[in-house]
Amino acid sequence: MGWDNRLQIAGWVLVLLLGLALLTCFWVIVPVGERGVWTRFGQVQPEILDEGLHFVIPLVDRVQTLSIRVQEQEISAEASSKDLQDVFADVALNWHLEPEQVNVIFQQIGTEKAVIKNILTPAIEEILKAVIARYTAEEMITRREQVKTEVDRELTTRLAAYHLAVDDLSLVHVHFSQQFRDAVEAKQIAEQEAKQAEFVAKKALKQAEMRINLAKGEAEANRILQETLTPSILRYQALQRWDGQLPLITGNNHSAVVELEDLIEARGKR
User: Fold this and answer.
1) What tens digit of pLDDT does each residue of 115-130 get?
2) CA distance linking residue 123 with residue 116, whole number of Å
3) Helix, strand, coil percentages in the chain from 3-state DSSP, rounded to 5
4) d(CA 33, CA 94)
5) How do beta strands 164-176 and 86-97 pair?
6) What three-state secondary structure class fits 232?
7) pLDDT tens-digit map of 141-158
8) Listed residue (140, 165, 145, 24) closest to 86, CA to CA
9) Bridge partners of residue 53, in order along the sequence
10) Residue range 3-21, pLDDT digits in tens
11) Phi, psi angle pair for 84, to nearest 5°
12) How many CB atoms are closer than 10 A to CB 103?
């Protein structure tokens, strides 16, 4: 093959490549999960390009693709609670662009980076500060789900004006200053000690009441016993327990009179 033929083949290859390159300039592909914003001479057109292949005119039309998939954005914010405690919150936000409004979003805000920087981050920080200021630091712990619901509701309303949809919002972490954590720990210890002291006091009171009731019962029993034990009953009980033996009496006198009461008394002493 001569030199001329080689040059001719190379020329045809170059023409073919240029033709293919020129041909591709008339077509644009919108990837899956994205939408195309079509501009003509720099003006945003009302038509939104769906996924797939689309014909455009080089140097006249341009297509900017924007993702409509759910995106995650993590933002940290610092705020003050109702009782002026420092609160540090980490928020995880799942959001996406409204597919039918991507041309308006691009025209008014720009790309996803501009949306995050100019809209999402300031909105989350501002709403977090406003909501946290309605609660005390202790309520931020005990009513955390309610705080999340309020932030979610207000953020959804705020972002809807920019055609941004909130899919989910989570308060990943809520931190407090070391001084507040120490105060909470001291309060918990004091409450535990107070409960223990209350338990001991109630136990002592119960025991005192039991002793009082027991003493009252014994006093009442003694009173009833004193009222019911007459001399006749005492003599009768003594006779019931007498074994029939008389006490031995000695002395100078050969005769002595022994009274029954003396026998009862002597028996009782035995």
Assistant:
1) 999 999 999 999 999 9
2) 10
3) 55, 25, 20
4) 16
5) antiparallel
6) helix
7) 889 999 999 999 999 999
8) 140
9) 29
10) 666 666 666 666 666 655 6
11) 65, 35
12) 22
